[in-house]
TrEMBL record:
Listed name of the protein: Glycolate oxidase subunit GlcE
Keywords (A to Z) from UniProt: FAD, Flavoprotein
Keyword Acyltransferase among record annotations: no
SUPFAM superfamilies assigned: FAD-binding/transporter-associated domain-like (SSF56176), FAD-linked oxidases, C-terminal domain (SSF55103)
Annotated InterPro entries: FAD-bd_PCMH, FAD-bd_PCMH-like_sf, FAD-bd_PCMH_sub2, FAD-linked_Oxase-like_C, Oxid_FAD_bind_N
GO molecular function, one term: catalytic activity
Length: 396
């Protein structure tokens, strides 16, 4: 199988134009760390952004950074950290969960809308993405958005590309808004709560004026210990100290929380972000990512457990549920989606063997009107169906 590694945007456009003429289906990759997410590849060659590297703009005073799509995420984060800044959405690293190697790229983060625990406060990756450059399926270079926040008229290609998983175009450059690194970060840990009480505590904290930037619950045994409910606060030291005191008073009915800071707290949140409890346990099990109303989280988890062996933990105050099930049969697809149906939500099969991912819808099945819209967008941007064919939905 051929692998193309264009060194610039013009060369990328030439590669895609030639592939379109041959009707050669292309697998789009950056660092190749998320290749196992989505339906199995149906391609004939690989188009890699690995050679498209380098930060093209960094304006700390304007809170904006731009980089070529193949730039390692670690390079972006290191440059931002030197300026006491960060990506607001805390992107997940899938390598441990998927058992992959390589380096995550900033283009991959944009293409997958890859976000983490801070999403409840800072939004998703797409909310910080303000500009993209990409090659469409005709081999044309397209620019959308810019380097400042502004109103958008017409089709917002920036938001459309985020979460399209490389099915609409080959990203060559992305631009993100950034934020200052908080002066202090502190985490309150409530011990021993069951799922319902944990969600009640997280909802109370999130509904308060004390600006929670992370709210997660690890049930008993999920990482070998007792149940823990995590609430993160960030900002100026004096503000954090005040809010810690107010939150302790607000949550006194849930027990006396412990205070965790520094490397220990960072490790806790990295574990939640990267789903490490399921990376280490049952590496051949299926892992689902469920999004629902936070108040529904405990009921959804209980319904899945009633139908199938399962383990889970909560992020986003209960609105994001990570579920581990055996990979046999449909990997729990029927149980997971039946549990979500009464209250709404969607589920993505993040990890499973190839045979399961080929047989079970990996992304949430779309209603017929939405599938027509998706097919229309695919035809408009990639008329020959070159890019990551079938990765999200069969036939697209």
């Amino acid at each position: 199988m051929s692998t193309y590694q264009p060194r610039d945007e013009a060369e990328a456009a030439s590669v895609v134009s030639a592939a379109a003429a041959r009707r050669e289906r292309l697998r789009l990759v950056g660092g190749n760390t998320r290749a196992g997410l989505g339906r199995p590849a149906q391609d004939e060659a690989t188009l890699s952004a690995a050679a498209l590297r380098g930060i093209t703009l960094y304006e700390p005073a304007e809170l904006v950074i731009a980089a070529r799509a193949g730039t390692p995420l670690a390079e972006i984060e290191e440059r931002l950290a030197a300026g006491r800044q960060m990506l607001p959405f805390e992107p997940m690293d899938h390598r441990a969960l998927l058992g992959s190697a390589g380096e995550p790229t900033i283009g991959g983060v944009a293409a997958g809308n890859v976000s983490g625990p801070r999403r409840i406060a800072g939004g998703a990756a797409r909310d910080s993405l303000i500009g993209v450059r990409f090659i469409n399926g005709r081999g044309e270079a397209v620019k959308s958005g810019g380097r400042v926040m502004k109103n958008v008229t017409g089709l917002d290609l920036v938001k459309l590309m985020a979460g399209s998983w490389g099915t609409l175009g080959f990203l060559t450059e992305v631009t993100f808004k950034v934020l200052p690194i908080p002066e202090r970060t502190a985490t309150l840990v409530l011990a021993g709560l069951d799922d319902a009480r944990a969600v009640a505590a997280m909802s109370l904290a999130l509904g308060s004026p004390f600006e929670i930037t992370g709210a997660a619950h690890l049930p008993a045994g999920i990482d070998g210990g007792e149940a823990r409910t995590l609430l993160r606060i960030e900002g100026f030291s004096a503000s954090v100290e005040y809010r810690l005191g107010e939150l302790r008073r607000l949550l006194r009915a849930f027990g006396g929380p412990a205070l965790v800071e520094g490397d220990e707290a960072a490790a806790l949140w990295a574990g939640v972000r990267d789903v490490r409890p399921f990376a280490a346990a049952a590496a051949d099990g299926a892992v689902w990512r469920l999004s629902t109303a936070p108040s529904r989280g405990p009921a959804v988890a209980a319904a899945i457990a009633a139908a199938r062996e399962a383990r889970w933990f909560f992020d986003w105050g209960g609105g994001l549920i990570w579920v581990l099930t055996p990979a046999s049969g449909d990997a729990g697809a029927e149980a997971v989606r039946a549990a979500l149906r009464p209250g709404g939500g969607h589920a993505t099969l993040v990890r499973a063997p190839d045979a399961v991912r080929a047989a079970v819808p990996v992304f949430e099945p779309l209603a017929e009107p939405l599938m027509r819209v998706s097919a229309g967008l695919k035809a408009a941007h990639d008329p020959a169906g070159l890019f990551n064919p079938g990765r999200m939905y069969a036939g697209l």
